[in-house]
Write a structure and sequence with these properties.
It contains 10 helices and 10 strands. By secondary structure, the chain is an alpha/beta fold. The protein has 3 domains: 93 residues, no CATH class; 73 residues, Arc Repressor Mutant, subunit A (Orthogonal Bundle); 100 residues, no CATH class. The strands form 3 sheets. The protein has a 6-stranded parallel beta sheet with strand order 3-4-5-7-9-10.
């Protein structure tokens, strides 16, 4: 018996098929079954030639620029599944179709690739799914120590959650930082976008500039949003109304980096907020009424030199200028 272990799409099936092809003649009877888990409802032998001559059908001679080919390879990032699916789809298509496909992939992952990668995610317990989505949307490339501090403050069991995600090959730890494959990150982001494709106010997490601006400008009450992490490439003024965040009834995590409030007035924060980072903040901050749950506060380089009123509840991490 041989066991192959790794994230969805990394090439376990391809390797198993290669081994099967090499040894099946030594047995009186043999059959290759793939995607057992995905087809467990109606389990049938699937005799597909996975490594067919690894995808480009026929001998059509269509010239494709090296740049476009390299873009597809960068998107696949070494996943045999991605190469197989994209190769089969792009076969026989001309450069405009390649360019259009790459533009679409930049917005939303390929469904067939996504469905395979999502198998590992679907098998997670709810708490581990939440941790995975936070990392995919916000914290890829951040230190393990920082991620654990932030998510522990939001009442997640982060240490065991990260270990489970590593075991499932959804994330990896490299030089004390948490990383994940680009396609797995896109898969996680797509799960959140699927919560409501039309209106970001009904999604659990916001991280895109335009989505955050849309929600802040709508000034509507919502119970869907759990976390906002907006990191801009350079300082930018954004209008944030005094009650913009208090209308987000379940907001637990709020991080605003390179965000300057264009109106430096009083901003109310929801009482359920647990982790809050806003360096360079120039506004006056105050909690709304209710029991305060804040655990972590980082306001380095802000104009505030000491904790504002109501910020002294359960805090274990307070950072100022």
């Amino acid at each position: 018996m041989v066991g192959l272990w790794g994230q969805g799409g990394v090439g376990k099936t391809s390797l198993a098929k290669a081994i099967y092809n090499a040894i099946f003649r030594e047995f009186p009877g043999a059959c290759f079954l793939e995607r057992i888990r995905e087809n467990s409802i109606d389990l049938v032998p699937l005799q597909e030639k996975l490594l067919s001559e690894h995808v480009f059908r026929g001998n059509q001679e269509i010239e494709i620029s090296r740049n476009l080919v390299h873009q597809v390879l960068r998107y696949a990032r070494g996943l045999p599944l991605a190469l197989e699916v994209l190769g089969a789809f792009l076969c026989g298509r001309r450069e405009p179709e390649w360019e259009s496909t790459l533009q679409k992939l930049a917005k939303s992952p390929n469904k067939k690739i996504n469905d395979v990668l999502k198998v590992s995610y679907d098998g997670l317990e709810p708490y581990a799914k939440e941790i995975f989505l936070h990392i995919a949307c916000f914290f890829k490339g951040r230190s393990k120590e920082y991620i654990e501090k932030v998510l522990d403050s939001c009442e997640f069991d982060t240490t065991i959650g990260i270990e489970v995600l590593i075991e499932c090959c959804l994330i990896s730890e490299e030089a004390e930082k948490i990383q994940m494959h680009d396609l797995i990150q896109l898969m996680g982001m797509d799960i959140v976008k699927d919560e409501d494709r039309d209106d970001p106010i009904n999604r659990s997490r916001l991280w895109l500039h335009d989505d955050v601006l849309d929600v802040l400008s709508e000034d509507k009450e919502t119970k869907a949003i759990k976390a906002i992490v907006l990191q801009l490439p350079k300082p930018e003024d954004i209008y944030i109304g005094p009650d913009a965040f208090t209308k987000m009834k379940n907001l637990k995590l709020l991080i605003l980096l390179n965000v300057d409030n264009s109106i430096q007035g009083l901003i109310h924060l929801p009482s359920g907020l647990m982790w809050f980072e806003w360096p360079n903040c120039g506004s006056t901050l105050e909690f709304s009424y209710g029991s305060k749950k804040l655990v972590g506060l980082d306001m380095r380089n802000s104009k505030i030199k000491e904790a504002p009123r109501h910020f002294n509840v359960r805090i274990y991490s307070v950072l100022f200028h």
